[in-house]
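Design request, tokens follow.
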């Protein structure tokens, strides 16, 4: 992180708080030394930023000097914070880090009355060891989808039968409490949804694929899923997250 980025993050962190924060805490968040924080605070003061510091207490922005507040209601802000917490808990670490950064920037420009509501937010979504393994899998699959890389997976179906599949991953879909990766399966030569919690291993291959008019996420939504939704007899025998 460059010095200019670090200075911006310091202002964001201070703006997002109603109380002082110590140099030690700031150094841990930004992964720099406390001495670096001291120098950065001097640079902010020299540039006209209204930073106040007190030994043993910490730093804060002078009251009334924060950034203009965003016009979000308490309910809107709660919804955003919950969404960002879900990203940290269930998707890959890179997006989780981006969610943390976004949360800091949003809090930095919220009015104090909304911040007080968020401090009492009743929802908690801890990142456990189990969910971290799932998050790592999300990362592999997300890269495969965005970079059009064929994915080799070790998969166990609903009956516990294991198989190795090569798929062209087209999207990650949430079905309520389940995540699946929609892919074109080379073995079945057709669309399949593979539940992420049944994927024992996923490996990026050296091969790429191309989407087209008859093989893409949009095509699946327009044809396969639309046919499923409109056919009552089909719904009796087929579940959306297949296999």
């Amino acid at each position: 992180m460059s010095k200019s980025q670090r200075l911006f993050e310091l202002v964001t962190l201070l703006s997002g708080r109603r109380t002082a924060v110590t140099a030690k805490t700031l150094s841990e968040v930004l992964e720099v030394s406390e001495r670096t924080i001291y120098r950065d605070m001097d640079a902010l003061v020299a540039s006209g930023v209204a930073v106040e510091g007190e030994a043993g207490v910490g730093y804060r922005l002078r009251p009334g000097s924060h950034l203009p507040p965003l016009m979000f209601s308490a309910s809107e802000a709660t919804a955003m914070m919950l969404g960002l917490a879900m990203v940290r808990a269930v998707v890959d670490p890179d997006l989780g880090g981006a969610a943390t950064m976004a949360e800091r920037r949003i809090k930095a420009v919220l009015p104090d009355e909304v911040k007080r509501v968020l401090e009492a937010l009743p929802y908690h979504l801890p990142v456990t060891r189990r969910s971290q393994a799932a998050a790592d899998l999300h990362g592999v699959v997300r890269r495969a989808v965005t970079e059009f890389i064929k994915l080799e997976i070790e998969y166990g179906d609903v009956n516990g039968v294991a198989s190795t599949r090569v798929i062209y991953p087209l999207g990650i879909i949430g079905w309520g409490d389940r995540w699946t990766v929609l892919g074109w399966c080379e073995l079945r030569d057709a669309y399949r949804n593979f539940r992420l919690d049944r994927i024992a291993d996923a490996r990026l291959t050296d091969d790429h694929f191309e989407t087209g008019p008859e093989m893409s996420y949009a095509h699946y939504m327009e044809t396969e899923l639309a046919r499923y939704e409109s056919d009552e007899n089909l719904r009796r025998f087929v579940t959306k997250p297949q296999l």
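Comment from the thread starter after seeing the answer: thanks! Residues 27 and 34 are 5 Å apart (CA to CA).
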